[in-house]
Amino acid sequence: MSIYTTITASLPFIEVDLNLTPQQMFMFINGLKYILPCQRRFSSNTLKQRVSEQYQSISTTVKNCLKDHRVPVAD
After folding, report:
1. Among the residues of 20-74, which ranges form H helices?
2. CA distance 4 to 19
3. Closest of 59, 40, 36, 37 to residue 49, by C-alpha
4. pTM of the predicted protein model
5. Is the peptide bond before 37 cis (omega within 30 degrees of 0)?
6. Which residues pair with 7 in a beta bridge?
């Protein structure tokens, strides 16, 4: 299994498959770094909206995985 699809380093993620795409896992591990200016110009959303949408997507995936494995989730 690839590190980009499974987190096995620390509790409570031991041997839990989060089903994240490689791009989502990269963002989860490293955070957002930089959005190219040309990409930003063509988006109607603000940077804050885009970051919030991406965070919600990853957060939902992780929370659902934790719930599936009966790990308590608190916001």
Report:
1. 22-30, 37-41, 47-68
2. 9
3. 40
4. 0.42
5. no
6. 16
Q: Is 24 helix (H, G, I), strand (E, B) or coil?
A: helix
**Residue 40 in contact with residue 47, Cβ under 8 Å?**
yes
pLDDT of 7: 47
- Give the tens place of pLDDT for each residue, 37-50: 565 555 677 778 88
- Tens of pLDDT, residue by residue over 21-30, are 888 777 777 7
pLDDT the model gives residue 71: 80
Partners of 11 in the beta sheet? none
| Sequence ranges of the domains in the chain | 6-68
Gap between the Cα atoms of 7 and 55, Å rounded: 18
- Structure-token match 């896992």, residue found: 25
